[in-house]
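Troubleshooting entry. Yesterday's outputs looked truncated, so today I'm pasting the complete records for two proteins to confirm everything comes through intact. If either block looks cut off, that's the bug. Protein one:
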Amino acid sequence: MPGDTSRRNAVHRLSEGTPGPAYSLRRATPEDAEAIAAVNVAAARAGWTAFLDREDLDRFEPPTDRMRARIEEAGPRSPVLVAVETDQILGFALLRAPADEAASEAVGELSALYVDPSAGGRGVGRGLMAAALAELRAAGCREAVLWTEERNHRPKRIYERYGWRADGAARERMFLGRPIREVRFRLDLAAPRRGGGPEGARAV
């Protein structure tokens, strides 16, 4: 795991049963930070219009330094995963230990999962989700949590298709100078797997 470069950067090939070339899943390296940040911004500008104005989204700058720091600090329960085709990053997922009062060794958090809009419809999000959950199971987690803005309706429907359920928790914070309200979803990692995607497709 940490310090084992060959395992950390090993590649898992996926075809997802979709047309076009296969993409790969692997652990991110610091050199990926700029491309990951660009995907974050592109996905946000395309998908967050339900709760943020276009003017606000246009002010969202790529968080390159934060992504680089996050990659450098990655551990067994907090990897950064990327989906790659040739040299292009199509999407990414961030995992971590939950920071709230419910945190425990048995719970992991999917803190972000974004796909570049240009790669939509190719199963990239499905592959990243499967790999992220496989990472949490391998780390000994029995539950997973995630937070999403309550008006983020399309992702919420996708999470529910995978078996995630809102657990009643909510929090408010400021983002780009605007108040947002996030709700928490929870997934039993021991339950039968739903939503398709590669079985146990770890990116390590």
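Protein two, checking that the full record survives here as well:
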Amino acid sequence: VMVSMATEGEWLREFLMEHNMDRFLQTKEGHGGSLLLTPLFFYIMMMPLSVFLVPAVIDFIRKPQGELTGFCLITISVIILIFSISSTKLPNYVSPALPFGAIVVGQYISNLNTVNKSTCLWLLILLVISLAVPIAISQAALEVVLPSDWLLTIGFPLGVLTGIFFIWKQRLLAGVTSIMLSLVVTVVVLFYTMVPRIDKQNPVQMSIQSIDAEGNFAAYYIFNPAFSFYLKKEIKVFEEVSELEAFIYQNERVTVFTRSSVLDDLKQLPLNTILTAKDLFEKTKTVVLQEK
């Protein structure tokens, strides 16, 4: 309430309309996609426990028991359905469903008395996925990824293999713990080694030192919103070239942010390109221009 009063209702309007209603009705920042994208996000974010999700659901359908499991499955379904039909799709949107997914898997594992062929099949799928991680890193076409970086993730498949051994010996708790710990350790190792190197390839990090922080900022059509966070200044967005041109002539030391897909629209403006770089984990390219 106090924030809304201090901003004269602007914060509340932006939060409810721009970042909720508009994101549901329109694709923002190019983050659209298939209806299957949201369930895929959920499955990946539940890894490695997601390998137990399908057998857990099948088991519940065959033998419906436990109101808690049913409630969790309904909650997961509703969350995934809502964000599947949303125009904007991002992985973090399904985060509220993760605790419910963990409860479903936990209930299934706690009631699993013996390891059957179906369980073994899903565990083998997890092993294949875990082996794909170091292979993918070793083949990554990124300058910041070193040839030896695959060793940083070798603990994950080793932990999965150890977990499968324990589970095969009917020691479910030890098996699941081994699998989970191997992923946690791998994520922590990557976070402090490879991730900082990759983050330096972010267009924001690459250009922030070259930008006049005391100047004026504008964006044409669409831009990387991370610039707003780092610059801590208003970035006016223009959708008409004539309006952007007027802003440039009315202000000094102007920096313009945009995407390469619309760069041709700005050819006639007095701007120099200081950076063109691919956005991390996106298909788009960010372009930073400064007034001549």
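Both blocks look complete. Sanity check on protein two: The chain has a mean pLDDT of 87.
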